[in-house]
Amino acid sequence: MYHFYFNLNSHGLVAGHLTAYGTATNGPDIVKTRCYTDSTTGTEILHGTWTNDNTLYFEWTDPNSPSDDTFYYELNHSSGNTIGFSDEATTTVNHVEITLPNEADNWWFHVAAKNGAGTEGPQGKPRKILIKYDCTEPSDPSVTSADPPIDTLTNDNSVDLTWNEGTDTDGSGVDGYSWVVDKVPDTVPGQTMEEAGLPNTINLDNGDGDYYIHVRTKDNAGNWTSAYHYGPWKLDTTLQPLISPHPVTVQ
Question: Which residues does residue 110 pair with via DSSP β-bridges, in sequence order?
């Protein structure tokens, strides 16, 4: 606020120039809004990116008048300016923790401030950040053909595969796969994606026996499937060509 001082002449009129003392008091202005997976050691979730964490910590900066501000905030599906300084939730600190509804969707967090003098900011418009939430796992791929086929004895330890790839139609989309080949029917692969994606060829390289392939799918929000299992290939490298039980006489 400015204070103005001026001189009066003998007739009671202003004489000379106005002189101002003091400093201007700015309205609230939220400079930056951020989102984290928790309040201390959480990972920052950038605007417009996917997450599968449903409890989020939002914080913001208000350098102009933080001491007497009331912050109005809400979470909804609108990208517009929805803060009306009326029926929104409020807080007097510059952070809040929110649990997202169990609904995969785009969520907008809005926040705006009003100071002790009733001035709304920034310019009456909220700051906002878009969080894309996906709480459901994708669908696993499936093998459409295998050569040699499963459930049949083979002495070929190299298998060619074709796939129907995994899907995540209503979610964040498939990010990649983790897979392993072994002799156990129900192995669950780890959560390290294979850069090459699904294999076109696998090798049965641990001696004779039954082999399986196990696949997990990860979406862009970090959700993993339980596992897809396919097999067994029955490898027997001691197989000999079929010999007729009846001798053939060559004339």
Answer: 74, 128
Identify which of 212, 213, 208 has the alpha carbon closest to the alpha carbon of residue 157.
208
**In the CATH hierarchy, which fold is given to the domain comprising 142-235?**
Immunoglobulin-like (2.60.40)
The two most distant CA atoms of the chain are separated, in Å, by 149
pTM passes above 0.90: no
Phi, psi of 66 (to 5 degrees): -70, -20
74: number of Cβ within 10 Å: 19
Cα 109 to Cα 35: distance, rounded to the nearest angstrom: 9
Tokens of 184: 């156990």
Rounded distance between C-alpha atoms, residue 79 and residue 124, angstroms: 16
Topology match between the domains 33-133 and 142-235 = yes
Fold topology of 33-133: Immunoglobulin-like (2.60.40)
pLDDT score of 99 more than 50: yes
C-alpha span between 26 and 67 (Å, rounded): 13
